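Before going further, learn to read the protein records used in this course. The integers have meaning only within a learned vocabulary of local backbone shapes. The record below shows the convention in full.
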Amino acid sequence: MPLPPPIAEVQEISKVYIMGTFEVHALRDVSLAFQAGEYVAIMGPSGSGKSTFLNLLGCLDTPTSGMYYLGGEDVSIMTDDELSAIRSKRLGFIFQSYNLIQQLTVVENIEVPLYYQGWSEGDSFDRAVELAERVGLGDRLDHRPTELSGGQSQRVAIARAMANDPLIVLADEPTGNLDSRTGMEILELLDELSSLGKTIVMVTHDQHVADRASRRVRFGDGRIVDDSGR
């Protein structure tokens, strides 16, 4: 039985940065497809291209050449405004440094993606409370990031990433700033999202973290050097 069309696919994408008179080839003719519900770990040494690849998947950057299809749309040819709309509607982000807005409460931080989609105040509040409770922060709704631990802050980030029911959740070293016990709690949350059918692409340097994914893709010198399951 043939596989359904991939939820995201890059075809021969390259990324070249011009540094004065030098060209830096961050990605070289990378082709990769992701099926709905996959949990994929992206690995590789510093400078291998993994972070550049995640930025391209997240529509935070555009390829120098090649094509990128997300939900059947070629986003590699979109304008900045169109890419901004794609990020708002179809992608969820979890960063190592959490990237929460310090002046906003837990609920308000989770609501941010919904604000940009034009949700009503009541609906966005209800959705944010539901997600806060799902990640174990139902008793922290009015707290601000300075009143939260690192693990709690990352839980807010996960809830925010899920607010718009994205096609893909992109996680960049999601446990990098956490101690081992708290990091394990965050990984268990990601496991739960995966079990619910959410597509997750995660950059990590930690083999133990990567082993929780169902598929591991290793980059080296801007190319894919390995693509395997458990």
